[in-house]
Amino acid sequence: MATINFGGVEEQVVTREEFPLDKARETLKEETIAVIGYGVQGPGQSLNLKDNGFNVIIGQRKNSKSWDKAVDDGWVPGESLFSIEEAAEKATIIQYLLSDAGQMQQWETIKKYLTPGKALYFSHGFGITYNEKTGIVPPTDVDVILVAPKGSGTSLRRMFVAGKGLNSSYAIHQDATGKAYDRVVALGIGVGSGYLFKTNFENEVFSDLTGERGILMGALAGLFEAQYNCLRKNGHSPSEAFNETVEELTQSLMPLVAENGMDWMYANTSTTAQRGALDWRHKFRKATEPVFEELYNSVKTGKEAEIVIEANQKEDYRVKLEEELKEIRDSELWKAGAAVRKLRPENN
Ligand SMILES: NC(=O)c1ccc[n+]([C@@H]2O[C@H](COP(=O)([O-])OP(=O)(O)OC[C@H]3O[C@@H](n4cnc5c(N)ncnc54)[C@H](OP(=O)(O)O)[C@@H]3O)[C@@H](O)[C@H]2O)c1
Q1: Could you give the 3-state DSSP secondary structure of residue 188?
Q2: Which of 124, 173, 236, 282 is an active site residue?
Q3: Quick one: average pLDDT of 288-294?
Q4: 231 φ, ψ to 5°?
Q5: Contact 167, 195 (CB under 8 A)
Q6: In the predicted model, is pLDDT for residue 20 greater than 90?
Q7: Which of 13, 53, 84, 246 has its CA 20 to 30 A from that of 2?
Q8: Per-residue pLDDT tens for 105-133?
């Protein structure tokens, strides 16, 4: 394991140099890896494993679009594509990549096939961390491990095909065989991770739920709306308000932050922008800190998990979701966004 200094704090990171693909293949050469679920992570992880030379099969319920997608991607029914039960039975490592709600519903089926010495693999700490609510409690004589790619399954595959690697976190919840570390790292490398950093199931889910509700998706959308509405209320046109709120951020500034960091971006804007941004940053931090505390607490106490589980069990979840998304899509802000996107030279 390499020790890397992250802003003054040393962390253990596993890189491909130290745990090369050959070693990963050697570690898992006797294993049958069943990827259960062919949604978003399923295709990315299983195709990368297959192309990397691992023994991998798919478990997916039949009569479903995901089954057809698996066939289209080259998985052969009866050879490398099976029902969930059949795949779980054949597997020595079960990669449980159903949706988090699906994992709860299929748990009794999967549990039957968790015989001693097998490994149960997750890409999210949700099912195990909130097991009082999910009912997912594995037997004590199997390894329980996690590799969570830090991005969509689609990006995992695209980056692999382009010769790059998304980074992932890894965790061990149960080491029944004494092989859990080698298994989890080998799988992490096998699914196409660029490098792996250590976490535990609880931290993985707490940070993930906070991040997506916060900066990555929830807070971001809320801040967009607040600033856009403020500009509109003060007489600015939709195109002006959208450009100053969203377009400049996504098109110009964030790629610079991704490349060189925040200070570099600040250093490379006008002195007028610099002075104002440096001052107002503190005010925004102070204003949102209590909201982030409230959010983290809601994640930690399991309230967010409860909300998700209850919502996902509703029959009309998809219908209601579409209504909510439509409301966003049809708002002036995002309609202005659609018009602005169309105007980009590359879209003409
Ligand atoms: N999305 C991501 O990129 C991402 C990133 C990091 C980690 N993760 C984690 O990876 C895991 C998989 O996530 P995902 O986004 O790939 O899931 P997803 O796309 O929502 O998964 C859908 C899969 O679950 C199956 N499924 C759902 N409900 C089912 C049920 N009741 N019975 C049987 N099968 C059911 C679907 O089959 P049908 O098509 O037949 O319904 C499909 O194969 C989750 O733990 C997630 O938190 C996801």
Answers
A1: helix
A2: 124
A3: 98
A4: -65, -40
A5: yes
A6: yes
A7: 53
A8: 999 999 999 999 999 999 999 999 999 99
- Whether the pLDDT of residue 216 is over 80: the answer is yes
User: What SS3 state is found at 121?
Assistant: strand
Lookup: tokens for 279? 């001052």
52 phi and psi, to 5 degrees?
-85, 0
Q: Is 124 among the residues known to form the active site? A: yes
Question: For the residues 81-109, what does the mean pLDDT come to?
Answer: 96
Q: What angle do CA 154, 135, 60 make, to 5 degrees?
A: 40
Q: How far is the CA of 346 from the centre of ligand 1 (A)?
A: 34
Amino acid at 6: F
Q: How far is the CA of 99 from the centre of ligand 1 (A)?
A: 3
Cα(252)–Cα(147) distance, integer angstroms: 32
Going 147 to 151 to 134 to 59, the CA torsion angle's sign is negative
Dihedrals phi, psi of 94, to nearest 5 degrees:
-100, 115
Among 93, 283, 95, which Cα is nearest to 176's?
93
**φ and ψ of 34, to 5 deg:** -105, 120
* Residues in Cβ contact with 70 at an 8 Å cutoff, skipping those fewer than 6 apart: 38, 43, 58, 60, 81
Kindly give the number of the ligand 1 atom that is closest to the alpha carbon of 64: 40
Q: Residue 95's pLDDT band (boundaries 50, 70, 90)?
A: very high
From the list 98, 83, 74, 88, the residue with the least C-alpha distance to 34 is 88
pTM of the model: 0.92
Pairing of strands 93-96, 119-122: parallel
Give the whole-angstrom CA distance, residue 199 versus residue 172: 8
Both tokens of residue 26? 């050697």
d(CA 56, CA 91): 9
Can you tell me which atom of ligand 1 is nearest the CA of 39? Answer: 19
**pLDDT recorded at residue 125:** 97
User: Which residue owns the Cα nearest ligand 1 atom 12?
Assistant: 97
